[in-house]
């Protein structure tokens, strides 16, 4: 059924075309000039059957609203977006390559930022231990003092495997940064060919609870550390170095 026949049957009962019916057919009855195409516009079958069976204006309006909710509009009010074509094999390869290049660039920038950070730390002026200790004590920072444990990362602190754990190597770097790379017993340095160790003043074998206490550490060359072994608990540090270790222990 065309729209002109539909209107003719409606007009016999003095019923005007509603906006809902117009939307269902793709026309806007509120705009001028819409009637010039009524002989070409197809009426939905549901509305055609209803008007043939003598449906009222309210019934036709309700049916039209249902059509507007359940199916896309047609005609002048249709604004369906065109389907996006699937990407070709070449486009997928180019997109994959672009993503890989972006990831590599992101990684490069992160590495450059990390290198700049390490360079700034390396080039920053080092403060003497006495100044560092005074600043830490003055700031009033009271952190957690490391408490010794018999087992660290699954190994006994009295074993040689303990020296390979991350927990110990981290504390070792703190101690080297605090004391410097110079043997506190004989004064040897790496420039003399000496290998620097971090010695436990009170040996781990007899005092395992102090294995991770930076206040129980000092710098010693490999020869002095080997000679001291577990027989002595001599502290070769200066009072300033001891004070710096005590202050640093409160921040670790």
Secondary structure topology:
Elements: H1 3-11, H2 19-25, H3 45-52, H4 57-70, H5 89-123, H6 129-139, E1 151-152, E2 155-156, H7 166-179, E3 196-200, E4 217-221, H8 222-228, H9 239-249
Antiparallel strand pairs: 1-2, 3-4
Summed up:
The chain has nine helices and four strands, in the order ααααααββαββαα. The chain has helices at residues 3-11, 19-25, 45-52, 57-70, 89-123, 129-139, 166-179, 222-228, 239-249; strands at residues 151-152, 155-156, 196-200, 217-221.
Helicity, in percent?
40-55%
* Largest β sheet strand count, sense and barrel closure: 2 strands, antiparallel
User: Secondary-structure element sequence?
Assistant: HHHHHHEEHEEHH
Shape: rod-shaped
What's the number of helices?
Answer: 9
Walk across the major sheet and give the strand order.
1-2
Terminal-residue CA separation: 87 Å
- What would you call the structural class? mainly alpha
Beta strand %:
5-15%
Low-confidence stretches at least 5 residues in length (pLDDT < 50)? 73-80, 142-149
The whole-number mean of residue pLDDT values reads 79
Number of strands: 4
What is Rg? 43 Å
Q: What does this molecule look like?
A:
By secondary structure, this protein is mainly alpha-helical. 46% of the residues lie in helices and 6% in strands. It has helices spanning 3-11, 19-25, 45-52, 57-70, 89-123, 129-139, 166-179, 222-228, 239-249; strands spanning 151-152, 155-156, 196-200, 217-221. The chain has a two-stranded antiparallel sheet with strand order 1-2. The radius of gyration is 43 Å and the shape is rod-shaped.
